[in-house]
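Hey Z.,

So I finally got round to the iron/sulfur cluster thing we talked about over coffee. Here's the setup:
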Amino acid sequence: MKTKHWYDFLWLWSILFFGLGFFNILFAWLGMIDFFLPLVFALVGGNKFFCNNLCGRGQLFSLLGGRLKCSRGKSAPRWLVSRWFRYGFLVFFLAMFANMLFQTWLVAAGAASLREAIKLFWTFRVPWGWTYTAGTVPDWVAQFSFGFYSLMLTSLLIGLIVMLLYRPRTWCAFCPMGTMTQGICRLRRRGGKEAWPGQTPWVPFAFVEKKFPARAIIPTYRAY
Ligand code: SF4
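And the result:
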C-alpha cells in the first residue's frame, strides 16, 4: 500500500480556500501561492513537482472523479486536449488575468469604484458583498480579491464540469498553470537534456529530481 504523505491531503487546502472566500474575500490573496509555486518549481527546478504532488485542485478532481466516482470516465474530445486549445486557452486566461489587474489598477488610481461582486465565467456578475466590510483595507486590495477569486472559482467550476463529463483530471489537459509549467520544463530540458548544461539545481530541487525522475517531466494531462 502506498505510503501517504502530508501533501496527499492538499485537496483539503483547495476546499478551505474556496470555503474561506464565502466568509471573507480577502483570503483570495492566499490563492497567489497556487499561482506562483508551480512557476517557481518549473523555473528553478525544471520539473512539475507541484502538479504531480502539491496541487490541491488536481487532487480534489482525482478524489471526486476517481474515488467518489463523480466522473463518467470518458476520454475527452481530441480538440480539448489539442495543443491549439491548450495554448489558446492559456492566452485567453492570461488576457483575463491582465484585465483583472487593470480593473484593480483603475480602482487604485481612483478612476473606478470598488465592485463587491464576483464574475463567473467572465460574464455573470454575482453579488458577493457580505464577504467584505468597506474600508477594512485599501479598495484596490479588496478589488483584487474579488477579481482573483472570480478567476479561481470560474476555473474550478470549469474543471468540475469537465471532470463530470470526461476523466477526473481533464482540466489538467488545458489548465493554464499546467501549460505554462510544461512549456518552461520543455525549454529547460529540450531534447532530454538540461537547456543550461552544467547548472547545478538548487539543493531541494535536486532532491526532488532524484526522487521523482520520470514523472517530473510527463505532461500533467498524460500523467492522469
Ligand atoms: S495542471 Fe493545473 S490543476 Fe492540474 S495539477 Fe497542474 S496546476 Fe493543478
